Structure formats: C-alpha cells, structure tokens
C-alpha cells in the first residue's frame, strides 16, 4: 500500500512525516501568507527523512480570508485563521497529485483538538474519504492522529527535537511572528512536552 502525506511543514504534519514515513509528501502553496516558510520547513523535513516531495502551487489568495490570507476574518469564521473550505481544497489538490503516483491512502494531520473547525473532525475526514474513494483511483483519506492532541502526537511519534525544530507553524509570515494562533500553539505544545520556548 502506497501512502502520501499532506505535509504543511507545521508541527503536526512534521510529526506525522517522522512517525508514518510516507512514500510521498505533498506540500501546497495556495497563496497563503506563510507559504514559503512552510515549503522551506517541509522540504527540510523531507530531505532529512529521505521522503520524496512534490510542491503544488495554486494561487487561491483571492478566495481566502483571515490570518492566512492577510485579510479580516469572515463572519462565519470559528477562528481568526479560518479560510473557507481550506482542508477540502487542500485534499482535492493533493488527491490530483496522488493519482499520478498510484497512492492508495492520503494522510492528513487532523487532531482530536481540531474539532472546533468542522473540517478537522473525524466525521468530515470520513465523509471526504468516502467521496474520494467512489471516484477513479479509489483514493482513501486518513487522519492517523485523530485521537491525539498536539503534544500527545509529539510523544507518540517519537520525533527528535532536532527534526521537530524545522517545523513552521506561523499563519501570517514566512518566519514566526510569535503572536498568531499558530505560533502560540507551537509554543504551548513545546512547553507541554518539556521544551522551553525559544
């Protein structure tokens, strides 16, 4: 069975890359503010773990909102970084790449604690998997860390800190701003696993 990972270069997907050792990692620049930082981090992780990587560029910035797009949050937003239908879009773009590589399962980094975003919930992943699998190629979607919080995933994955240090979690910049929800989650997770904030 061939597996691919949607690798943003953030903490969660970096842990999954180390833990799951996918056959292929797919990183997507969809026109968001932190794209180059994410690509830099994901590429470094793939290089050190010897994982084949594909980078997809599709500028959808005109369709975004919130921190990731550098605009005010949409009134429907459950959080400041909400980008409408983002996970559905990312999975669709990654699935297009998966077909070319005869991938059976695409894995994403949804966590138990992502449930306030509808597209981070287990039922959403299962529904999207059903939709993908009924189409040509029979691709399935999986969220191997769906039972874990971010700090639990760090521990379960066994990832060394020197690899996790490559991760890029900022929502607004190619370098950590230190203030957005992504940076705060990064610092809180590092503290929870016993690493002092840097």
Structure notes:
With 198 residues, the chain is an alpha/beta fold. It has one domain (3-192): Rossmann fold. It has seven helices and five strands; from the N terminus they run E-H-E-H-E-H-E-H-E-H-H-H. It has a five-stranded parallel beta sheet, sandwiched between helices. Helix 1 (11-20) runs parallel beside helix 5. The longest helix has 15 residues, at 35-49. It is globular and about 45 Å long.
Layout of strands and helices, then pairs:
Blueprint: E1 3-6, H1 11-20, E2 24-29, H2 35-49, E3 52-57, H3 86-100, E4 105-107, H4 122-133, E5 140-142, H5 150-157, H6 161-164, H7 181-192
Parallel strand pairs: 1-2, 1-4, 2-3, 4-5
Helix pairs in contact: 1-5
The best one-word shape is globular
Second-tier CATH architecture: 3-Layer(aba) Sandwich
Structural class: alpha/beta
CATH class: Alpha Beta
Tell me, rounded to a whole number, the average pLDDT: 93
Number of domains: 1
- Biggest sheet details: 5 strands, parallel
**Using only CA atoms, what is the Rg?**
16 Å
Low-confidence spans: pLDDT under 50, at least 5 residues? Answer: none
Strand order of the largest sheet: 3-2-1-4-5
Strand tally, please? 5
How do the SSEs run, as a string of H and E?
Answer: EHEHEHEHEHHH
Q: CATH superfamily membership, which one?
A: HUPs
Separate helix tally: 7
Percent helix range: 25-40%
How much beta, percentage-wise? 5-15%
């Amino acid at each position: 069975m061939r597996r691919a990972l949607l690798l943003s270069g953030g903490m969660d997907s970096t842990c999954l890359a180390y833990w799951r050792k996918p056959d292929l990692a797919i990183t997507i620049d969809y026109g968001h503010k932190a794209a180059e930082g994410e690509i830099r981090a994901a590429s470094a992780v793939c290089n050190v773990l010897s994982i084949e990587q594909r980078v997809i560029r599709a500028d959808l910035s005109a369709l975004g909102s919130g921190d990731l797009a550098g605009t005010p949050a949409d009134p429907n937003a459950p959080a400041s970084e909400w980008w409408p239908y983002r996970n559905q879009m990312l999975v669709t773009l990654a699935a297009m790449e998966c077909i070319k590589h005869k991938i059976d399962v695409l894995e994403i980094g949804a966590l138990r604690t992502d449930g306030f975003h509808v597209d981070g919930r287990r039922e959403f992943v299962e529904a999207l998997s059903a939709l993908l699998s009924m189409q040509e190629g029979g691709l399935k979607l999986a969220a191997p860390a769906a039972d874990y919080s971010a700090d639990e995933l760090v521990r379960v994955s066994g990832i060394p800190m020197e690899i996790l240090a490559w991760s890029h979690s900022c929502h607004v910049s190619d370098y950590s701003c230190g203030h957005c929800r992504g940076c705060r989650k990064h610092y809180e997770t590092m503290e929870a696993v016993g690493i002092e904030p840097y």
